[in-house]
Amino acid sequence: MTPKAALLALAVTFASWSIATAQTPAPAKRTPAPPPVPFHVLINTTTLAGLPRITIPATDEAGHTNKYTGVSLHDLLVKEGAPTGAPVRALAMLSYVLISASDGYHVLFTLPELDPSYTDHLAVIADQVDGVPFKDAGPYRLIVPFEKRQARWVRNLTAVDLQNITPP
Known about the structure:
By secondary structure, the protein is of the alpha+beta class. The chain has a single domain (about 40-165), classed as Oxidoreductase, molybdopterin-binding domain (Sulfite Oxidase, Chain A, domain 2), CATH 3.90.420.10. About 20% of the residues lie in helices and about 30% in strands. The strands form two sheets. Strands 2, 3, 6, 7 and 8 form a five-stranded antiparallel beta sheet that branches. A hairpin with a 2-residue loop joins strand 6 (about 125-130) and strand 7 (about 130-135). The model has no long low-confidence stretch (mean pLDDT about 85).
């Protein structure tokens, strides 16, 4: 092939690529799945009834390892209608769980932080430590054993809310 023929073949190839690209329509904008329906649930024996009970070891701030018994926070969220697994994407990634205590203390988790398809960690709504009901600070506590600091361990747990952030 002569240099002129090679140059002509290259020019035709580039021209056909630019024509093909110009004729390709932009992909349609996908409509994201709607966010989860918000809810507010009070923590009591009725709310937790029927959920599987679990016992986990956790070390408190004083360095004592105890066994906490209760229900998985994730199981409660699913019971109340929160998405789990593959549906935790798109706008569900902007959902958060607000934990409230009777003394006005609040902590926050994103929904994926509590979903087993994203993490192996559990947060537990406990009503017993070492097989004995809590004596002080309310009947329910949130135990988050995977965290280095216990700022999201909540005493006097009273409510769980699922809310959504609206993107800008």
